[in-house]
Amino acid sequence: MTDYGAFATDPLFGLPLEELWFGLVFFILGMFLFLDGFDFGVGALFATRDDEDERETLLAAIGPFWDGNEVWLVVFGGALFAAFPAVYANLFSRHYLLMFAILGALILRGLAPEMYEQRHDEAWQTWWGRSFVVGSVSAPFFIGVFAAHWLLGISSLVSLPGVVVGLAVVALTIVAGVGFLGMKTRGALQRDVVEYGPKAMAAYLALVVVTLGYLVVLRPDLGVIAPIPLALVVITLVSAGGYLVTLREERYTLAFGTVPVLVFAFVALVAVLMFPMADPAVGLTVSDAIISILPLNIMSIAAALLLPLVFSYFGILYSTFRGPIETGESYS
């Protein structure tokens, strides 16, 4: 029998791997909500455009990115399954229908623009244009419901806090979409789209306030009134102010730069309020749910090697397709 020694009994380099992997799972979720979030936002804003050229510009803006961005959701599921298999099994079995709703929305969002480009008669494009909007709005909504239910240990398909958080995530994706299109578009289209930014931000902040009020009154055990959650709320407010100021000053790259701060503050708040629980619905803690030391050490080495490669790929992708969409560019 192979003797792995301390590698099988002690965490790698003495690191707190349980906490690091819990944080990594939520970091990956944050990457998905940030990168695919602006795609969802563009899809929602697609509903505001009637001009065919403007719709093509919106599709062209996300064309090179959306399928790569979606990979982060797969990585999230894989990391959760690999590090916390019991949590993965509990969540996906308890929220079986919700998982299928998320997958269905993502499929619709991905299929719709492809079908939209296949024919150019009005009825066909109207149908698939609406399907693109529905998929782009419903996917972040269901993901928000999932996040709320995970945190609060809710097993039902629908709940009031789930709906509120779902709407908050939709508003946040529109905030991201406006920032992204501010960089990728020009002229009248840019001016029209940017007007939705303050409205979406106001909706997001209002929904966050409602959510926090609910948690303070009905779930004081989560410790919302604590230094770290309050610091994350302050970061959210400061970032929201920066977004609105830079949007008004037409500094769209800076406006978009506030989006990851908003997204990761939201995800971090969920993680902080949940910890040390990994699955509050069944009382499963991070320490109880984590896999044994040997595979955890091996996975940690693999993650340390692979994540820089993933970030390099996305760096090349976004640098290659940087800059605004030029006249005549299309999704296909």
From TrEMBL:
<keyword id="KW-0472">Membrane</keyword>
<feature type="transmembrane region" description="Helical">
    <location>
        <begin position="224"/>
        <end position="245"/>
    </location>
</feature>
<dbReference type="GO" id="GO:0009055">
    <property type="term" value="F:electron transfer activity"/>
</dbReference>
<keyword id="KW-0560">Oxidoreductase</keyword>
<dbReference type="GO" id="GO:0070069">
    <property type="term" value="C:cytochrome complex"/>
</dbReference>
<feature type="transmembrane region" description="Helical">
    <location>
        <begin position="158"/>
        <end position="181"/>
    </location>
</feature>
<dbReference type="GO" id="GO:0005886">
    <property type="term" value="C:plasma membrane"/>
</dbReference>
<keyword id="KW-0812">Transmembrane</keyword>
<protein>
    <submittedName>
        <fullName>Cytochrome D Ubiquinol oxidase subunit II</fullName>
        <ecNumber>1.10.3.-</ecNumber>
    </submittedName>
</protein>
<feature type="transmembrane region" description="Helical">
    <location>
        <begin position="132"/>
        <end position="152"/>
    </location>
</feature>
<feature type="transmembrane region" description="Helical">
    <location>
        <begin position="69"/>
        <end position="89"/>
    </location>
</feature>
<keyword id="KW-1003">Cell membrane</keyword>
<dbReference type="GO" id="GO:0016682">
    <property type="term" value="F:oxidoreductase activity, acting on diphenols and related substances as donors, oxygen as acceptor"/>
</dbReference>
<dbReference type="Pfam" id="PF02322">
    <property type="entry name" value="Cyt_bd_oxida_II"/>
</dbReference>
<keyword id="KW-1133">Transmembrane helix</keyword>
<dbReference type="InterPro" id="IPR003317">
    <property type="entry name" value="Cyt-d_oxidase_su2"/>
</dbReference>
<feature type="transmembrane region" description="Helical">
    <location>
        <begin position="20"/>
        <end position="48"/>
    </location>
</feature>
<dbReference type="GO" id="GO:0019646">
    <property type="term" value="P:aerobic electron transport chain"/>
</dbReference>
<feature type="transmembrane region" description="Helical">
    <location>
        <begin position="201"/>
        <end position="218"/>
    </location>
</feature>
<feature type="transmembrane region" description="Helical">
    <location>
        <begin position="252"/>
        <end position="277"/>
    </location>
</feature>
<feature type="transmembrane region" description="Helical">
    <location>
        <begin position="95"/>
        <end position="112"/>
    </location>
</feature>
<feature type="transmembrane region" description="Helical">
    <location>
        <begin position="289"/>
        <end position="314"/>
    </location>
</feature>
